[in-house]
Design goal:
Blueprint lengths: L5 H9 L3 H11 L1 H22 L7 H49 L4 H6 L2 H43 L1 H48 L1 H6 L3 H54 L5 H38 L1 H4 L20 E10 L2 E11 L15 H4 L1
Helix pairs in contact: 2-4, 2-6, 3-4, 3-6, 3-10, 4-6, 6-7, 6-10, 7-9, 7-10, 9-10
Length: 386
């Protein structure tokens, strides 16, 4: 059986609603417009204010068109954000239900031996983990990372129009920011994967203990159970700590890059260019607002990267359930089984467990619709016969 990766698994469930997710992607770009076009509107309005500072009675004629476009932009962005919310409310529950039932269907096809070797709580937890964490990955990718990336591209084009140096500083900052993200991604994912496995093991032990609470009560083994579960809790806490500490180190690097490039580089050069008369007050306001809008978006995206990495790690760990091979599968050319008159025939069957012989040259013919009762002492072979 070939293994399935997370991307393929997600696409198998997304493709059934691909147009809904496409419109989610389109409407999520409202955040891009909100972050990049409002500073441009502010630039135009502020330049009009500056131009008509001594003749303000004539300013409204120059402001009418910018204010009309501002009203249209506000209404469009508001409508698009609300549409995005309704689309997410429709698509995500459907996606979760599809994943949940797909995994449940796969798991229940295993033989009893599989369930004897696995904790039911751990299996249920992995199904739950997959549904919730795929939702995080899809939602954050479509509504967070893609709009931020598009906002960066639009901002670079705006800055290039004002001065190539502004565009260069912004590009270097974004390149280093994403470079750090990519460089640390594998270790983040590995640590979160380890933590996810430890968490599933812990939850499995807890569910197993609660499932067998009658036996715990019967022998008054509460202290033993608590100590037993606590061993796994310590492992989970350690793995969780390691993952979160590493992510905080990554955030420290993001903060330093933001300070150097957004706080010192772009803002400092903006002040210098304004003092030299190379840019207008409106253009300075556009640069300032765009820079800090991008800073805000990048900071939110950076804060969400660890959560998405954690979600990827947990989802990959949960995906092991789908990669557990089914013991008995139909042949590729198997035809639907249609039984009109079912009968059971044992023809000269001999069976034994090691040295214990149960059947020797057993012949049995059970006819269609016939009811048969089995009677025998314990260990006589009734269950084996069935």
């Amino acid at each position: 059986m070939s293994t399935i990766n997370l991307t393929t698994f997600m696409w198998e469930h997304i493709r059934h609603s691909k147009w809904i997710f496409f419109f989610i992607f389109v409407t999520s770009l409202a955040w891009t417009l909100d972050a990049t076009l409002w500073p441009y509107v502010l630039r135009v309005v502020l330049d009009v204010f500056t131009q008509y500072d001594t003749e303000r009675q004539f300013a409204f004629a120059a402001l009418k068109i910018p204010l009309l476009w501002a009203l249209i932009l506000w209404l469009f962005i508001e409508f698009t954000f609300r549409a995005l919310g309704f689309l997410l409310a429709f698509a995500l529950p459907k996606l979760e239900a599809s994943i949940r039932m797909s995994m449940f269907d796969h798991v229940q096809k295993h033989l009893p031996k599989y369930f004897n070797e696995k904790f039911a709580g751990s299996l249920a937890n992995k199904i739950s983990d997959m549904t919730s964490n795929v939702t995080i990955i899809v939602q954050q990718t479509l509504t967070m990372f893609i709009p931020v990336f598009c906002a960066v591209i639009v901002s670079i084009l705006f800055f290039w129009n004002l001065s190539p140096l502004f565009a260069f500083l912004l590009s270097v900052w974004i390149f280093l920011h994403f470079g750090v993200s990519i460089f640390t991604l594998k270790k983040c994912e590995k640590l979160e994967n380890i933590h996810g496995e430890a968490r599933s093991e812990l939850n499995g032990r807890i569910v197993d203990s609660l499932t067998n609470n009658f036996a715990v009560n019967l022998f008054f083994r509460f202290p033993f159970e608590k100590a037993f579960v606590n061993r796994y809790q310590k492992i989970e806490r350690e793995k969780n700590h390691n993952a979160k500490v590493y992510l905080e180190y990554v955030r420290v690097i993001f903060g330093q890059l933001t300070f150097l490039f957004a706080g010192v580089g772009i803002s400092g050069y903006m002040i210098y260019a304004w003092l030299q008369g190379d840019i207008t007050s409106g253009e300075a306001a556009q640069i300032f607002n765009t820079t800090w809008n991008i800073t805000f978006m990048m900071w939110i995206a950076s804060s969400e990267i660890p959560n998405v990495v954690q979600a990827i790690g947990i989802a990959n760990q949960a995906l092991t359930v789908m990669n557990d091979p089914i013991d008995i599968v139909d042949a590729k050319d198997a035809k639907p089984l249609n039984v009109s008159d079912g009968e059971i025939i044992l023809d000269n069957v001999t069976f034994h467990y090691d040295t214990k012989k149960l059947f020797k040259n057993k012949d049995v013919h059970i006819f269609p619709a016939q009811k048969v009762g089995l009677v025998g002492y314990s260990g006589a072979g009734k269950s084996t016969f069935v």
